[in-house]
Amino acid sequence: MDQDGTGDEIPPDLWRVPDAEPRLEPQRIGGPNKPYEALGQAYVPQLGDPPLVERGLASWYGRKFHGRPTASGERYDMYAMTAAHRTMPLPSYARVRNPANGREVVVRVNDRGPFKSSRVIDLSYTAALKLGVLGGVATVEVERITQEAIRTGSWRRAVGDPALAASPQPAAGTADPIGDIARRVAAERP
Predict the structure, then answer these.
(1) CB–CB of 106/121 below 8 Å?
(2) Which residues are registered as beta bridge partners of 111?
(3) pTM confidence score
(4) What class does CATH assign to 16-188?
(5) Does 57 or 65 have the greater pLDDT score?
(6) Backbone torsion region of residue 67, taken as left when φ is above 0, otherwise alpha when ψ lies between -120 and 50, otherwise beta
(7) Which residues contact 10 (CB under 8 A, 6 or more apart)?
(8) CB 15 within 8 A of CB 177
């Protein structure tokens, strides 16, 4: 299992997996939030409730890590709405937007990475699928959802927000267009 990629059996209807629902969660001092080193580079995770907005490349990780422990100690589920970030406090929530197609998702950040300096976030397979970035890497905009925004509910998008219309929301009983894309990408990957 040295190569990463899609699982052997891609669950149907992944586009129906709901975004992560931000909730207040305690952040541990130490553990996944202590300074660490990866691939010879030192990282210092943020503490407290800092806002963070970044634009850069996103990638995704799949079967090679599926079921293994994340930095937070949880098991990685490539079919959940999660992500890895080098310095966000763990756990955190983030809104990730693909400016090329206007789609956006909310993910729970529970892992560390990516460790390629050109990338700002690693997405779960399902988050990448819903954003339309399964082809490798893509430019995204990342915004950490602060605990204050969770407390007040201000993180929620208003009904009628153009960003909501761009996210895939097929009606119940319709075909699985995103699943079709996932199967096509899986067939093309080595």
Answers:
(1) no
(2) 84
(3) 0.81
(4) mainly beta
(5) 57
(6) left
(7) 179, 182, 183, 186
(8) yes
